[in-house]
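Justification of computing resources. Each target in the renewal requires a structure prediction run like the one illustrated here; the chain below, 367 residues long, is used simply to show the kind of job we budget for.
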Amino acid sequence: MREQSGMFAAITHDMRAPVGAISCIAQLLLSQAEDAQAVRRHAMQILNACDELEEMIGGALDLAAQGRIALLEAPCVPEMIMHSAQDTAGALARAKGQQLIVTLEGPCAQPVIGDAGRLRRILLNLLSNAVKYTPCGGEIDLSARAQADGARMKLTFSVRDNGMGMDAAMLEHLFDPYARAGDARRAGIEGTGIGLSVVHALVKAMGGTLEVSSRPAEGSLFVFAVELALAPQVHDVFCGRRFLLAEDNALAADVTAELLRERGAQVTVARDGEQAVACFAASEVGSFEAVLMDVMMPGMGGCQAARAIRAMDRPDAAGVPIIAMTGAATPEIELQTRESGMNARAVKPVRMDALAQMLAKLGVASP
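Resulting structure tokens:
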């Protein structure tokens, strides 16, 4: 209990930084609303701060899962994951005058089936550590090598720095939570002390390998490799497609619907599970090509609504793709959504590119 309390105290302390940044950026947006370039810049800053928050929350949940991590299986692009991690870590590196060098080798732009959020979390944790423990003016190398073999691809990522490095005693306990606390050289360096524990747990859950080499004052090298299936080719997903979106949060519903409509989709919004069931029941057969179902809704939740749709006596009830939209990718949620008849899960905040790949896998994007 004391260890959990310490973990959450550290995490909530670190979360104040991106929350405070979002508040300040929002104030800048209001005062610079007429400057389109400034609005775009501040919008990207908000997205980066939200990504940072998402990493902290997701890392804490993964560590608390204690070996029961439920991985998502959705199409994703290794190159995009690399660039996303690079954008976030690059800002941290520039603030310390460090050079971040990125290298891609092989077909990194080819989509694979994997958990993009967790892969990004691994990279970002490793990169964040490299930035923290490398002095101002130092150098960090991030590389990815993709090797396709038939229907699968092996991805090898490496993060190298020329920072303070670690001795054998530190390496022995590297993946223990709070291992950094016993190292006097790390005093004054901010962090929760759980980043590498999260990395170790995620790589293990993916069936991958993780290797570390380091020497004091000579820097560190982290290499992890995973093998993933190649994703099917994506065709036009959204344009002209008809979606039923069930979401009780008004802001989330409006934003998601707008993103879909911006891509040419037709969207019917239901504010809770009961309304979603009623909309589907009142529609003509084949009206909806997919249902995007929030899991946690007041009254009738997403799982209960999915069961009600699957139980309807109409030709499309059993086969219409139902995608669970959830903020918690836990084994319990995975089991509940699967047992309720949902086909896949999308973790909030939902990325349109990831959703497109997921729909393609379910056959919605077939030509």
